[in-house]
Amino acid sequence: MLFSSIPFIFYxxxxxxxxxxxxxxxxxxxxxxxxxSLIFYAWGEPKYVFLLLGSVCVNYIFGFFxxxxxxxxxxxxxxNIILLVFFKYTAQFFPMLKAxxxxxxxxxxxxxxxxxLLDVYWGKVEFQRNWTSFxxxxxxxxxxxxxxxxxxxxxxxxxxxxxxxxxxxxPIFIIGLxxxxxxxxxxxxxxxxxxxRLSVPNLSIGVGTFWLSLIAYGFQIYFDFAxxxxxxxxxxxxFGFHFARNFDKPYSSRSxxxxxxRWHISLSSWFKEYVYIPLGGNRQGxxxxxxxxxxxxxxxxxxxxxxxxxxxxxxxxxxxLMLEKLGLKRxxxxxxxxxxxxxxxxxxxxGWVLFAFDSPSMLLTFYKGxxxxxxxxxxxxxxxxxxLLQNNWMLLLICGILSTRLPDIDIVESFYRPCPDHISAxxxxxxxxxxxxxxxxxxNKVKSNVFLKNVLLDxxxxxxxLLSVAYIVDGSYNPFLYFRF
Amino acid sequence: MGNYENxxxxxxxxxxxAMKYLKKNKxxxxxxxxxxxxxxxxxxxxxxxxxxxxxxxxxxxxxxTMTGLSDGSYMNAMERYLNDQFIGRNRWITLKTAxxxxxxxxxxxxxxxIGTDSYLMNQYTYSEVxxxxxxxxxxxxxxxxxxxxxxxxxxxxxxxxxxxxxxGSIDQIDFTSLLAxxxxxxxxxxxxxxxxxxxxxxxTDHHWTLLGAYYVYEEFIQxxxxxxxxxxxxxxxxxSDQSASAPITSDASTPGVSPSGALAVPYDPLTVSTxxxxxVARKVGITNIWDHMEQQKSDTSFIVTYDYGNTVTDSLxxxxxxxxxxxxxxxxxxxxxVTQITNLSLSDSSPALPDAPSISQGRxxxxxxxxTGSSILIIKDSxxxxxxxxxxxxxxxxxxxxxxxxxxxIDTFIADNGIDQVLFLYSKINFMQDKNLSKLLx
Lengths: 485, 442
Fold this sequence. Notes:
The structure holds 2 protein chains of 2 kinds.
Chain A: H1 6-21, H2 26-44, H3 49-65, H4 70-93, H5 106-121, H6 131-139, H7 141-144, H8 152-160, H9 166-198, H10 207-238, H11 256-262, H12 265-276, H13 285-303, H14 308-334, H15 337-356, H16 360-370, H17 383-403, H18 411-415, H19 425-431, H20 437-448, H21 450-473
Helix pairs in contact in A: 1-2, 2-6, 3-4, 3-5, 3-6, 4-5, 6-8, 9-10, 9-17, 9-21, 10-15, 10-17, 12-13, 13-14, 14-15
Chain B: H1 2-12, H2 14-24, H3 26-44, E1 50-51, E2 56-57, H4 66-71, H5 73-84, H6 89-103, E3 108-109, E4 112-114, E5 120-122, H7 131-148, E6 151-155, H8 158-161, H9 175-178, H10 188-193, H11 210-226, H12 232-236, H13 240-244, E7 269-276, H14 279-283, E8 291-296, E9 302-306, E10 311-313, E11 338-343, H15 344-348, E12 371-380, H16 384-391, E13 395-401, H17 410-417, E14 421-427, H18 428-433
Parallel strand pairs in B: 6-14, 12-13, 12-14
Antiparallel strand pairs in B: 1-2, 3-4, 4-5, 7-8, 9-10, 9-11, 11-13
């Protein structure tokens, strides 16, 4: 069940919310969340739901013994890694095992289990005695199949005690939904159009069409993933969980290093916390640090899918990060800002081609097409280019503006802060909802303008929601992009 | 932990606060009301079987089976069901189109081009065609054309011809190069392009109008009477100004041919509907454009036999459809496997015409001259339905075969019914997509 689908929005969600909010005890609430998460998962993966349950139970038991116990820790990590590798990568390398399909969300829930186990091992948190609470953490349906990857110590407290936050949850959900349905899916159509042209033999495609479609693909991945994360975060808040922000204007970065602090933050911080730092991080000299970067980025690459292009994609970014560490960043810093942005965007777009195609010949065709090296006669711009531009300039413009850091239009930012009227200042500080003072300023601005906040914003959100529903009902192109993760 | 304790207390009071909050925050309240309304409305609403707007059957409530549950097909069917039967389906589609047009400023919505003068045209993209299927179909058609010396007409799409009505460039497949090897004997492109200012296509439907069909019909008959068919090089050079003098030309055409059956009948339209909304408009939920539908006025009596006598009627038209959504089926009752139209005024004078022998030059065995006593077989898609209502004025028997609904042998059919002439008439896009063309050589 996609979040962006009628069954989820109009059936599953209201039913679960109503049952959830008419129970009192936190134990009951966790129980309801667990059951609904399992139903949610079984709806898409009726068989692998038992694998999920098995993994949860084994990890729950590991949790009892793992504290400061190296042997148990190694066994537990191996168990999870083997599970992940077996289901994710075997079919790729042994074609006779094709029957093993990739269980939905296995990369996400395995990483969450590992996060719990390692947090307990290091003594960051107590182990979770309550099976329901632990299972609830791993299977929580808002983040189960497409992230964000929640680290255990971030929501440990909220498993015992939490308070639903609709005031920000609903808007963040609606914004995520519109990002996915109105922006990402429409950009995806431009990309699909190019793919269908590429599949026709001997069809000449102009250089401009390659670039325009690739830009659209970049927007599709960003708004799809960020939209999905926002929906998850919004849903989480409706149930009282506060997940950290997963995407923070990545395309406005001035270097690849910065890009990876803003893109899929939950994944890169997971790798940083549980792989990079345990390996020694940057504390044992440059050589070790470069080695660690390489390892982390190879893993990041293949985490995204079991084919060689994802490995290349990870290595590509690992290499760029190493170059930036070795001095490129210092050189960049002296250049005008616009050049820094152009360099970053160019490097990201080149990377998306690696991400998109798992066949080497397609990769080559695409790169050749982008740089006017195609074997077929090729113009700079063709009819397709103009047609795409005429029909999508507004879409691309909106996507472009929303990718920048202009604070006044950043509506998402304004909701990443709790509504000040009903959450006490102390909880606010405790849970550290807002990290950036920048965001706080943006909100205060919005807050000061009561009319804008109360009326315009509501109308805007309502419009976003209705339009998203219209696009969903129409059965337009609405893919799920994370089935390989 | 002091704060923690506090929030524990907070926790206990939470429900009342949550309820208070819902009441205080109107937007959250509105959002949940919408969710509940959407669910309740869809459940209470009676399920719809067929969406005339989208021209397809909507998914019905799936039956629960163990296998369906374990392989997930039940869940998929359920998701499709809930989506298809969501309340206010058509209104949502209209809203989406409005958003595409005004918010995203698109001229092409769901592959429908919004043209000037309210013309809506399908744009065909590479995702809809398959190069291998096209090659196969061209091979079948070449074999067929050679075997029966058939005439071949492929009707272009509106977006190819009405380029003057397009706003900006469109991103369409290159029909000309994809169909370069198709044995087209009469270029409908040339004929229709000359008349692009006239209403030769519907504004809201993908079909050509009676007028569009008429121009090609006129040229087809004229070529036959010249005995110069089945040579594409000749066809390509048809002077377009000749056909430009259109609707009333038939008496101006070749004086040498005398029999009434060999002349194109003059275009004489009768408007039968003024509120036709075709497939293209319905696809994007545009409801404020209407088309007129015409039929040819005729004094001739016909007998129409569908599917070997399953239904026999004396009219080419089915007026019932004019009150339904699918008005185009007014012509010859939509799609049937086999349709036979017998022209009673031609079949009365059964003896062959005196000039009959003189016309078979250029053809091997089949007499090509239309006229009394001759029979033509059209292998067709729905574009031929208007065309056939004109052509039946000139032939004693017009047989139509729709390969989607016909599984017999063409060879036997031709032998059994004494067919003199064979015509293949398809729209280009249907020709490229049809998976039944192997039946041509049966």
